[in-house]
Protein backbone atom coordinates (compact mmCIF):
# COMPACT_ATOMS: atom_id res chain seq x y z
CA UNK A 1 0.00 0.00 0.00
CA UNK A 2 2.80 2.42 0.93
CA UNK A 3 4.71 1.71 -2.32
CA UNK A 4 1.57 2.29 -4.36
CA UNK A 5 0.92 5.62 -2.58
CA UNK A 6 4.52 6.79 -3.11
CA UNK A 7 4.35 5.96 -6.81
CA UNK A 8 1.04 7.78 -7.17
CA UNK A 9 2.37 10.89 -5.43
CA UNK A 10 5.49 10.81 -7.58
CA UNK A 11 3.46 10.73 -10.79
CA UNK A 12 1.43 13.69 -9.53
CA UNK A 13 4.25 15.81 -8.12
CA UNK A 14 7.08 15.30 -10.62
CA UNK A 15 5.25 16.93 -13.57
CA UNK A 16 4.47 19.93 -11.34
CA UNK A 17 8.15 20.24 -10.35
CA UNK A 18 9.22 19.93 -13.98
CA UNK A 19 6.76 22.64 -15.03
CA UNK A 20 7.92 24.83 -12.12
CA UNK A 21 11.54 24.51 -13.25
CA UNK A 22 10.69 25.07 -16.91
CA UNK A 23 8.66 28.21 -16.17
CA UNK A 24 11.30 29.56 -13.77
CA UNK A 25 14.10 29.00 -16.29
CA UNK A 26 12.08 30.67 -19.05
CA UNK A 27 11.36 33.74 -16.89
CA UNK A 28 14.98 33.94 -15.74
CA UNK A 29 16.16 33.87 -19.37
CA UNK A 30 13.78 36.71 -20.23
CA UNK A 31 15.14 38.77 -17.32
CA UNK A 32 18.75 38.07 -18.38
CA UNK A 33 17.96 39.00 -22.00
CA UNK A 34 16.19 42.20 -20.93
CA UNK A 35 19.06 43.25 -18.65
CA UNK A 36 21.65 42.41 -21.31
CA UNK A 37 19.74 44.47 -23.89
CA UNK A 38 20.42 47.70 -21.98
CA UNK A 39 23.22 49.78 -23.47
CA UNK A 40 24.12 50.47 -19.86
CA UNK A 41 22.42 51.23 -16.58
CA UNK A 42 22.82 53.00 -13.27
CA UNK A 43 21.01 52.01 -10.08
CA UNK A 44 21.00 52.66 -6.37
CA UNK A 45 21.92 49.62 -4.33
CA UNK A 46 20.95 48.32 -0.93
CA UNK A 47 23.49 45.76 0.32
CA UNK A 48 23.34 43.36 3.26
CA UNK A 49 25.74 40.66 4.41
CA UNK A 50 24.32 38.22 6.96
CA UNK A 51 25.92 35.29 8.78
CA UNK A 52 23.61 33.98 11.50
CA UNK A 53 26.19 31.70 13.12
CA UNK A 54 28.73 34.53 13.43
CA UNK A 55 26.06 37.10 14.41
CA UNK A 56 26.88 39.37 11.45
CA UNK A 57 24.26 41.69 9.96
CA UNK A 58 25.99 44.35 7.88
CA UNK A 59 24.07 46.91 5.83
CA UNK A 60 25.36 49.41 3.28
CA UNK A 61 24.04 51.56 0.46
CA UNK A 62 25.67 52.57 -2.77
CA UNK A 63 25.45 53.18 -6.50
CA UNK A 64 26.31 50.82 -9.36
CA UNK A 65 27.05 51.59 -13.01
CA UNK A 66 27.12 48.75 -15.56
CA UNK A 67 28.08 48.87 -19.23
CA UNK A 68 28.74 45.55 -20.93
CA UNK A 69 31.37 43.70 -18.89
CA UNK A 70 32.45 46.93 -17.19
CA UNK A 71 31.03 48.13 -13.87
CA UNK A 72 31.62 50.61 -11.08
CA UNK A 73 30.38 50.16 -7.51
CA UNK A 74 30.50 53.10 -5.13
CA UNK A 75 29.73 51.91 -1.62
CA UNK A 76 30.47 53.02 1.93
CA UNK A 77 34.11 52.20 2.65
CA UNK A 78 35.11 51.00 -0.81
CA UNK A 79 35.11 51.71 -4.53
CA UNK A 80 35.21 48.81 -7.01
CA UNK A 81 35.86 49.53 -10.69
CA UNK A 82 36.24 47.12 -13.60
CA UNK A 83 36.74 47.85 -17.27
CA UNK A 84 35.96 44.21 -18.04
CA UNK A 85 39.61 43.17 -17.98
CA UNK A 86 40.99 44.63 -14.74
CA UNK A 87 39.36 45.12 -11.32
CA UNK A 88 40.46 47.92 -9.00
CA UNK A 89 39.29 47.72 -5.38
CA UNK A 90 40.00 51.00 -3.60
CA UNK A 91 39.80 51.26 0.19
CA UNK A 92 39.86 54.96 1.16
CA UNK A 93 40.47 54.35 4.88
CA UNK A 94 43.68 52.40 4.23
CA UNK A 95 44.61 54.39 1.11
CA UNK A 96 45.16 51.16 -0.84
CA UNK A 97 43.96 49.96 -4.21
CA UNK A 98 44.15 46.25 -5.02
CA UNK A 99 44.45 45.42 -8.71
CA UNK A 100 43.33 42.01 -10.00
CA UNK A 101 42.43 40.36 -13.29
CA UNK A 102 38.72 40.14 -14.08
CA UNK A 103 39.35 36.91 -15.95
CA UNK A 104 40.70 35.21 -12.81
CA UNK A 105 38.09 36.63 -10.45
CA UNK A 106 34.76 35.22 -9.28
CA UNK A 107 33.88 38.50 -7.57
CA UNK A 108 31.97 40.32 -10.28
CA UNK A 109 28.99 42.23 -8.89
CA UNK A 110 27.53 43.03 -12.31
CA UNK A 111 23.98 41.59 -12.20
CA UNK A 112 24.14 40.66 -15.89
CA UNK A 113 27.35 38.67 -15.47
CA UNK A 114 26.18 37.00 -12.26
CA UNK A 115 22.88 35.84 -13.75
CA UNK A 116 24.45 34.71 -17.03
CA UNK A 117 27.25 32.83 -15.25
CA UNK A 118 25.19 31.00 -12.66
CA UNK A 119 22.14 30.52 -14.85
CA UNK A 120 24.14 27.96 -16.85
CA UNK A 121 25.28 25.93 -13.85
CA UNK A 122 22.26 26.00 -11.57
CA UNK A 123 18.84 24.38 -11.62
CA UNK A 124 16.16 27.09 -11.41
CA UNK A 125 12.74 26.79 -9.76
CA UNK A 126 10.20 29.15 -8.23
CA UNK A 127 10.49 29.45 -4.46
CA UNK A 128 7.02 28.50 -3.24
CA UNK A 129 7.84 29.58 0.31
CA UNK A 130 7.99 33.24 -0.69
CA UNK A 131 4.71 34.95 -1.53
CA UNK A 132 4.39 38.49 -2.85
CA UNK A 133 0.72 39.26 -2.50
CA UNK A 134 -0.79 41.59 -5.09
CA UNK A 135 2.45 42.13 -7.03
CA UNK A 136 4.20 40.77 -10.09
CA UNK A 137 7.26 39.75 -8.07
CA UNK A 138 8.54 36.19 -8.31
CA UNK A 139 11.43 34.63 -6.41
CA UNK A 140 13.55 32.15 -8.34
CA UNK A 141 15.88 29.85 -6.47
CA UNK A 142 18.93 28.50 -8.31
CA UNK A 143 20.62 25.50 -6.70
CA UNK A 144 24.16 24.54 -7.59
CA UNK A 145 24.67 21.54 -9.85
CA UNK A 146 28.46 21.49 -9.49
CA UNK A 147 31.11 22.15 -6.85
CA UNK A 148 30.84 25.92 -7.07
CA UNK A 149 31.68 28.07 -4.04
CA UNK A 150 28.11 29.36 -4.04
CA UNK A 151 25.51 26.99 -2.65
CA UNK A 152 22.46 28.90 -3.87
CA UNK A 153 21.44 32.05 -5.70
CA UNK A 154 18.00 33.60 -5.15
CA UNK A 155 16.71 36.29 -7.48
CA UNK A 156 13.56 38.37 -7.16
CA UNK A 157 12.21 39.55 -10.51
CA UNK A 158 9.25 41.50 -11.82
CA UNK A 159 7.46 39.04 -14.10
CA UNK A 160 5.58 41.84 -15.88
CA UNK A 161 8.46 44.02 -17.10
CA UNK A 162 11.11 41.26 -16.81
CA UNK A 163 13.34 43.33 -14.54
CA UNK A 164 15.64 42.27 -11.73
CA UNK A 165 14.71 43.58 -8.28
CA UNK A 166 17.26 41.86 -6.04
CA UNK A 167 19.60 38.90 -5.84
CA UNK A 168 21.00 36.98 -2.86
CA UNK A 169 24.13 34.83 -2.97
CA UNK A 170 24.42 32.03 -0.39
CA UNK A 171 27.97 30.75 -0.01
CA UNK A 172 29.13 27.55 1.65
CA UNK A 173 30.48 29.44 4.68
CA UNK A 174 27.00 30.47 5.77
CA UNK A 175 27.24 34.01 4.36
CA UNK A 176 24.27 35.58 2.56
CA UNK A 177 25.06 38.56 0.33
CA UNK A 178 21.98 40.46 -0.87
CA UNK A 179 21.90 43.29 -3.41
CA UNK A 180 18.64 45.21 -3.82
CA UNK A 181 18.36 47.21 -7.05
CA UNK A 182 16.53 50.53 -6.76
CA UNK A 183 15.79 53.44 -9.12
CA UNK A 184 17.29 51.75 -12.17
CA UNK A 185 17.98 54.04 -15.14
CA UNK A 186 18.89 52.30 -18.41
CA UNK A 187 20.61 53.45 -21.62
CA UNK A 188 21.88 56.72 -20.20
CA UNK A 189 24.97 58.81 -20.95
CA UNK A 190 27.93 57.32 -19.02
CA UNK A 191 31.51 58.36 -19.76
CA UNK A 192 34.05 55.56 -20.37
CA UNK A 193 36.27 57.11 -17.68
CA UNK A 194 33.73 55.93 -15.08
CA UNK A 195 35.07 52.40 -15.59
CA UNK A 196 38.78 53.17 -15.17
CA UNK A 197 40.78 53.80 -12.01
CA UNK A 198 43.46 56.50 -12.40
CA UNK A 199 45.83 56.33 -9.41
CA UNK A 200 47.03 59.94 -9.93
CA UNK A 201 43.51 61.04 -9.02
CA UNK A 202 44.10 59.59 -5.54
CA UNK A 203 47.36 61.11 -4.21
CA UNK A 204 49.21 58.89 -1.75
CA UNK A 205 47.33 55.71 -2.67
CA UNK A 206 49.33 52.47 -2.46
CA UNK A 207 48.85 50.21 -5.50
CA UNK A 208 48.89 46.48 -4.68
CA UNK A 209 49.04 44.53 -7.94
CA UNK A 210 47.72 41.00 -7.39
CA UNK A 211 47.79 39.89 -11.03
User: Main β-sheet, in a few words?
Assistant: 12 strands, mixed
The fraction of residues assigned to DSSP E strands is 35-45%
Helix content: 10-25%
Structural classification: alpha+beta
Rg, Å, rounded: 20 Å
Q: Helix count, per DSSP? A: 2
Poorly predicted tracts of residues? 1-20
**Shape assignment:** globular
Residue-averaged pLDDT, rounded? 79
Distance between the termini: 63 Å
> Number of DSSP strands?
12
Question: Strands across the major sheet, in which order?
Answer: 7-8-9-10-11-1-2-3-4-5-6-12
Order of helical and strand elements: HEEEEEEHEEEEEE
Could you explain how this protein is built, in words?
The chain is of the alpha+beta class and 211 residues long. It is built from two helices and twelve strands. The protein has a twelve-stranded mixed β-sheet, with helices on one face. Strand 8 and strand 9 form a beta hairpin. The chain is globular, with a radius of gyration of 20 Å. Residues 1-20 have low confidence and may be disordered.
